[in-house]
From TrEMBL:
Pathway: Porphyrin-containing compound metabolism; heme A biosynthesis; heme A from heme O: step 1/1
Transmembrane portions of the chain: 69-89, 156-174, 186-204
Organism classification: Eukaryota, Metazoa, Ecdysozoa, Nematoda, Chromadorea
Cofactor(s) required, per the database record: heme b
Domain of life: Eukaryota
Protein name according to UniProt: Cytochrome c oxidase assembly protein COX15
Pfam family, one: COX15-CtaA
GO molecular function, one term: heme A synthase activity
Gene Ontology cellular component annotations, sorted alphabetically: mitochondrial inner membrane
GO terms classed as biological process: heme A biosynthetic process
Organism the protein comes from: Setaria digitata
Topology in membrane: Multi-pass membrane protein
Keywords from the UniProt entry: Heme biosynthesis, Iron, Membrane, Metal-binding, Oxidoreductase, Transmembrane, Transmembrane helix
Cellular localization per UniProt: Membrane
Reactions catalysed: Fe(II)-heme o + 2 A + H2O = Fe(II)-heme a + 2 AH2
Length: 257
């Protein structure tokens, strides 16, 4: 029904979704009804556009392109979940302080041969955790290799996540698959991944320094830094999961049904 018809009929029907709100005579004693009609019409149109389209992340993509990007983002979410699980295993096996160096590239290569393992073990012996674990029984090289491997897998998983995110992200960005809103969200995700590496080392460093431990006898990482590390992982997981599902599933008009 056109606006002119509304005027001629003397009554105004304001449609929002499937709901209908009837007002009094348009040309009555109260001209505020006219202004209300225009205002509600604009609000209704705005809400319907926002709900139907959602955040403008994938409106310009074909269904196939949306599914591809959605599957990639859900894969990234799965890798974040795996990183949290590996972090839990590292925590339970008390392996987090076994790698006393932090270098983005040099520590990617594990020790090779007995001589290199001995050098790495001697480096570990300089820190409080070795003294604590060897207070009752001397730690062996085999035991050190195990806890070192646990922490190594955790760190390499984080690096793999960075690659799995960065390479496809750069490709999709170059091909124009990202809207302005999507670019901002991907920048946030990339920043969180970078921060996770830095915060992870910041956390480990608190356990290597005995002055940072509330209990001087038992070396432990700062619980506050650990909580920060875990919380950011949850935030990153949520960003990937929500954005991935937003691409996989078709948005529906749920406005005022």
């Amino acid at each position: 029904m056109s606006f002119l018809t509304h005027l001629l009929s003397g009554r105004t029907s304001i449609n929002i979704g499937k709901a209908s709100l009837l007002t009094g005579p348009l040309f009555g004693n109260n001209i505020r009804q006219t202004l209300t009609f225009f205002k509600l019409s604009r609000i209704s149109d705005s809400l319907q556009r926002r709900v139907v389209l959602g955040v403008p992340l994938s409106c310009h993509l074909t269904p196939s392109q949306r599914r591809t990007i959605g599957a990639w983002l859900l894969g990234c979410a799965g890798m974040v979940y795996g990183a949290v699980a590996l972090g839990g295993v590292t925590r339970l096996t008390e392996s987090g302080l076994s790698m006393v160096n932090w270098d983005l590239f040099r520590t990617m290569k594990p020790p090779w041969g007995k001589e290199q393992w001995e050098i790495e073990f001697e480096r570990y012996k300089q820190f409080p955790e070795y003294k604590f674990k060897s207070s009752n029984e001397e730690m062996t090289l085999a035991e050190f290799k195990f806890i070192w491997a646990m922490e190594y897998i955790h760190r390499m998983w984080g690096r793999a996540l960075g690659i799995v995110f960065l390479v496809p992200c750069a490709c999709f960005w170059a091909k124009g698959r990202f809207s302005s809103a999507m670019k901002k969200r991907m920048l946030i995700a990339g920043t969180l991944i970078c921060f996770q590496g830095l915060i992870g080392w910041w956390m480990v460093k608190s356990g290597l320094d005995p002055n940072n431990n509330s209990n001087k006898e038992i070396p432990r990482v700062s619980e506050y830094r650990l909580a920060t590390h875990l919380t950011l992982a949850f935030v990153l997981y949520t960003v990937f999961l929500w954005t991935g599902l937003s691409h996989i599933f078709t948005p529906y008009n749920v406005c005022f049904y």
